[in-house]
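[User] I wish I could look at a protein chain and see how it folds. I have put the entry right below:
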Amino acid sequence: MMLEQVSSTKVFGGWLRQFNHQSEVNNCSMRFAIYLPPQAATQKVPVLYWLSGLTCTDENVMQKSGIQRVAAELGIAIVAPDTSPRGDDVADDPDASYDFGLGAGFYVNANQAPFKSNYQMYSYIVDELPALIEAKFNVNQTRSISGHSMGGHGAITIGLKNSLRYQSISAFSPICNPINCPWGQKAFNGYLGADQTSWAEYDSCELIKKTDAKIPMLVDQGNADNFLTEQLQSESLKTAANINQYPLTLRMQEGYDHSYYFISSFIEEHLRFHAKYLIK
């Protein structure tokens, strides 16, 4: 598969690079960013996949979180895909709202027209992108997954559904119970249709109740987050984990909101958490 390099910048001794490539599952050009730590010059390194939230691209975490400093120290590559397919021929919300369509793929495989032809973000994240990364860069097959908000939802659901592919899961401010919040209901209705039987397969609370996996999971949530009660519902995730005795660490962080200021405050702790499982 051909890669088109968009940019390359040296950061903390490693390289932050952006690429475009043609996605077979999404039937369009996709962009991703990868940070290769200095260690990748001489050895294969593990990978943390970062899934961003509504309206974001591959650039948000790379520009705002400060993730590269600790990734360089630990020898972990960071891969940040875009949050949806894009392009003139890609379907969008007819109302052009921020919470559906472009920039809001929700990491599901859409089965509803006109979205099913491009919005196969679940398969892109789980299968196509890792295969590409492992073929083209000096990384190994040891992976963990993390994300923010919509991407936190994606990280938890993908990690739980693919427990043999990921060593650990973390999330900031995840949409924990999308079948019961406005963001999730709008997205799932549009991508998956009115039949709600399939919705539970993309809901962190529903998955964590029944999984046999016990992947280490760290979730940070700011208690001053404006979206906490209506959209994020972290207490629902805690309750669901308790039902199944799942090893969830949920930390409510005093005074923090939904922004990348929150993420940058705790990203080092998340990387060190993942390093315990990525680096043997």
